[in-house]
Amino acid sequence: MAKKIKDKDRDGIDFGTTKIDTLFNSIFYPTLLSMVFASLFTVADGIYFSNINHKKKKT
Q1: Rounded to whole angstroms, how far apart are CA atoms 27 and 8?
Q2: Rounded to an integer, what distance in angstroms lies between the CA atom of residue 29 and that of residue 27?
């Protein structure tokens, strides 16, 4: 049988005993970074496909 993994061992974050500011930093910055990359991807995607649409209308 597979060994059961404790919740705190799985992700390395102990929400019960870790200080709030440490938890905030360990969750906030990766989340912020992923949101920034997602928004940059959305902007680049919008620019790319809007240029394709304009090129099709001109010809």
Answers
A1: 14
A2: 6
Q: In which element (H, E) is residue 16 found?
A: none
CA angle 52-53-59, nearest 5°?
A: 90
Which residues, at least 6 apart from 14, have a Cβ–Cβ distance to it below 8 Å?
8
Residue with tokens 């099709």: 56
Each of the 59 residues of the chain gets a pLDDT tens digit; together they read 456 655 545 667 788 888 999 999 989 999 999 999 999 999 999 888 887 766 666 65
Residue 27 sits at the vertex; the CA angle it makes with 33 and 46, to the nearest 5 degrees, is: 25
